[in-house]
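During the reporting period the student researcher (J.K.) took over the structure-prediction task from the postdoctoral fellow and processed the backlog of single-chain submissions. One of the processed entries is reproduced below for the supervisory committee.
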Amino acid sequence: MVSIDLKYGCNPHQKLARITYGGETSPLEVLNGKPSYISILDALGAWRVARELRRATGLAAASSFKHVSPAGAAVAKSLSDVLREVYMVGDRKLTPLATAYARARGADRMASYGDIAGMSDVVDAETALLIKPEVSDIIIAPGYEPDALEILKQKKKGGFLIFKIDPDYDAPETETREVFGFSLEQTYNRAEIGPDLLRNVVTKRNDLDDEARLNLIVATVALKYTQSNSVSVAYDGQVVGTGAGQQARVHCVRLACAKADKWILTQHPKVRDLKFIDGLTRPEKMNVIDQFLLWDELSPPEIEEVNSKLVEKARPLTPGERRKWLAKFKGLAMSSDAYFPFRDSLDRANRSGVQFVLQPGGSVRDDLVVEAADGYGMTMICSGLRLFLH
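J.K. obtained the following structure tokens:
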């Protein structure tokens, strides 16, 4: 048996913490840093998202993971000039893996602050250089090029946590956990997320192009490793909004769609034209942008604080400008880890340009939910597969 001592449990006062593996050699190696209980949980979640996206799409994939749920997930697709600017990568060279991570982290940079980076492929120097200036705590990957490893070891004054995992390792058929002195067992969740899941279209509209299929797969893979209840919204091969751990499904949808709206609005010319004073860090700039997009909710001191970090006073987006810009983005894909009990989730999703929906189905009100989707001209698929994670 292999045993690795950890810094502490979920909290520093939980002193005894370790991870054990029953084999002679562990498939998980710590190449740098000292892990904690939570860092192990997050790293294993981040790795499984990236690995499964790679298997499902054939594209290099990455995840940005925090607090046992994805903050972002994406596959490698070329970045537009606008997204290069918004994601703060400029004109630097990006390999497919670096592109995937830029997308995974960039869609919600505030949620990704202090993230765990999960990589589907061996990490190259370009990806390491992309991660180096970010506030990120951990990386997990199947391997590292020598130059990449040296770059990453320089982060956090040498304390950046680097995991290497055997890409051929898989979990045993049965998983066990202990809670409050009780042992629980269940079959490991090996449900495959892929095109076969998208066959049962239940709406009048039934078109589903390759882009929509890709987005539904990306959203659903992320859901599989997101704490329930959960809803994920994807666009252009990346998760752009997640509502995780909410007790009401409509609250999941509101949260996911609000994040998707924010992702869209960060690309508005007014946001991209904000001029920051010298010396602001990336996180500080993102905080300003976040407050700028919530302008109507700010108090006078908050508005003063935002303007103090800008060269020129902010000219907030008007309601009309918001609506017009959001209307440019159609065809978002939304996946839910369980059925929609009421039509209210579809009503909210429609306001954010969602046109493709994947859900398990099985509600006594499925007919009303499908009716709502038909009313909005959505394509809805009922997969029959629930993906709760607790």
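The committee noted the following: The CA atoms of residues 343 and 369 lie 5 Å apart.
J.K. will present the remaining backlog at the next meeting.
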